[in-house]
Amino acid sequence: MARAITEEEKQYAQELLKSARIAQQAIEAYDQEAIDRAIRAVGWATANEKTFTRLAHLGVEESGLGSWEGRPGKRFKIQGILRDALRQKSMGIIEEIPEKGLVKYAKPVGVIASLVPTTNPALTPPGIGIYALKCKNAVIFSPHPRSKKTTFETIRIMRAALKKLEMPEDVFICVEKPSIPLSQELMAICDLTIATGGSAMVKAAYSSGKPAYGV
C-alpha cells in the first residue's frame, strides 16, 4: 500500500502547478508561427542523432532496460511526431461542418501531468511535450524513479531550447524527487493526465478525478 503524501510534497506540487500555470498563460497569446517555431526547436534539440544517442544510452544504463544498439533509433519517432504536429493547425477555427452548422475551435486544456515510464525516458517527454506545446499547454513530467536522471536531462534540453527562443522554460517542468503519492497529487490537481506505462499507472490516472489518457 502506498504511503500518504506529506505536507511538503503537497506544497511542492502546488508550487510546480503555479509555475506551470504562469508559463502556460504566458504562451496563450502566441500565434501559430511562434508555437511551430518552438516545437521545431524542441524536436530538433532532442531528436538529433548525437543528443538522442547520449540520452538513450543514459536511459539504458540507469534503468537496466532496453538495447544499447536499438534505443538510439527511437529518435525517428520524435521526428515523426514533429512532422505530424507541424502539419496541423492548433488554434482558432480548426474544423467546420457547414451542413450541421458546426464550427470547432481549438482551446488549451491548461497544465498536463505526464507520467513518464522507465522504459522511455528520452522519448516520452519530447513526444508528449511537442503536442502539448503545439496546443499551448504546459506539462509537469513525473519520472519513474528508475530513470529519473535521464528524464530530467531530457527535459533540461527541452527547456534550454525554449530559453534560446526567449520563451518561458516552465512550459516543461520535471519533478526532481518523484514518488507515488506526489504523482497521485499531481494527477488530482492538474487539468489533464497523460499516463504512459503499466496498467496500474493507467488505472491510477483514470481514478484521479480529472480527465486522463492512458497509453
UniProtKB/TrEMBL annotation:
Asked if the record carries the keyword Heme, the reply is no
SUPFAM superfamilies, alphabetized? ALDH-like
What are the protein's GO molecular function terms? Answer: oxidoreductase activity
Keyword tags: Oxidoreductase
Domain Aldehyde dehydrogenase: residue ranges: 8-198
Among InterPro entries, the record links this protein to: Ald_DH/histidinol_DH, Ald_DH_N, Aldehyde_DH_dom
Return the Pfam families for the record.
Aldedh (PF00171)
Report the protein name in the record.
Answer: Succinate-semialdehyde dehydrogenase (NAD(P)(+))
Q: Which organism is it from?
A: Vecturithrix granuli
